[in-house]
């Protein structure tokens, strides 16, 4: 069985996308479907390439049992669009940037917005918590927990 490959994307790959990767990783582990998925995260920019996730984001995630272990990297438009089945942006600007990077119509179809998978939160994006306080980091995790559940359900429904 081929793995479903998901790439989560935000601006710098130090807050939202590594958190989405960690939340999804925990969810698929709890559902005993880890072997069916391959997850990664990346940033639109390379500004934080090689860095671990933001320490504040890590602290908030750890309080919920998530471990942000990924190291920041930039989206690779030549290989990522070919390799991943789903490329999920955290906000509208990420989506616009990804659409501009997509090398083919087929790869453009892989792009979606994280909050499109939410069922309990009515946000049009996962807001960037970088310049805010603790409530921003908590909101990101709340939205991602909801969206990751919806994403998993959507993928499972497509496979049936």
Description:
The chain has 160 residues and is an alpha/beta fold. It has a single domain, classed as Rossmann fold (3-Layer(aba) Sandwich), CATH 3.40.50. It contains six helices and four strands, in the order βαβααβααβα. The chain has a four-stranded parallel sheet with strand order 2-1-3-4. The radius of gyration is 14 Å and the shape is globular. The two termini are 14 Å apart.
Keywords:
6 helices; 13% strand; Rossmann fold; 160 residues; globular; alpha/beta
The neighbouring-strand order within the major sheet is: 2-1-3-4
Largest sheet: 4 strands, parallel
The CATH topology: Rossmann fold
- The residue-averaged pLDDT reads 96
Q: Give start-end ranges of low-pLDDT stretches.
A: none
Tally of DSSP β-strands: 4
CATH superfamily: Response regulator
Number of domains: 1
Radius of gyration: 14 Å
Helix proportion of residues, in percent? 40-55%
Number of helices: 6
- The appropriate CATH architecture is 3-Layer(aba) Sandwich
Taken as a percent bin, the fraction of beta residues is 5-15%
Ordered list of secondary-structure elements with their pairings:
Elements: E1 4-10, H1 16-30, E2 37-43, H2 55-63, H3 80-83, E3 86-89, H4 92-101, H5 105-108, E4 111-113, H6 134-159
Parallel strand pairs: 1-2, 1-3, 3-4
Helix pairs in contact: 1-6, 2-6
């Amino acid at each position: 069985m081929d793995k479903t490959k998901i790439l989560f994307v935000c601006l710098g790959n130090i807050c939202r996308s590594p958190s989405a990767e960690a939340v999804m990783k925990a969810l698929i582990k709890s559902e005993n479907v880890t072997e069916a998925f391959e997850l990664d995260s990346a940033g639109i920019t390379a500004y934080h390439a090689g860095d671990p996730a933001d320490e504040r984001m890590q602290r908030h995630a750890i309080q919920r049992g998530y471990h942000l272990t990924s190291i920041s990297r930039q989206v690779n438009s030549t290989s990522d669009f070919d390799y991943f089945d789903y490329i999920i942006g955290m906000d509208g600007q990420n989506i616009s940037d990804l659409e501009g990077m997509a090398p083919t119509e087929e790869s453009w179809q892989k792009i979606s917005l994280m909050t499109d998978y939410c069922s309990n939160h009515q946000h049009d994006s996962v807001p960037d918590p970088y310049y805010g306080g603790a409530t921003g980091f908590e909101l990101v995790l709340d939205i991602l927990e909801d969206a990751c559940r919806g994403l998993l359900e959507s993928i499972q429904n497509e496979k049936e």
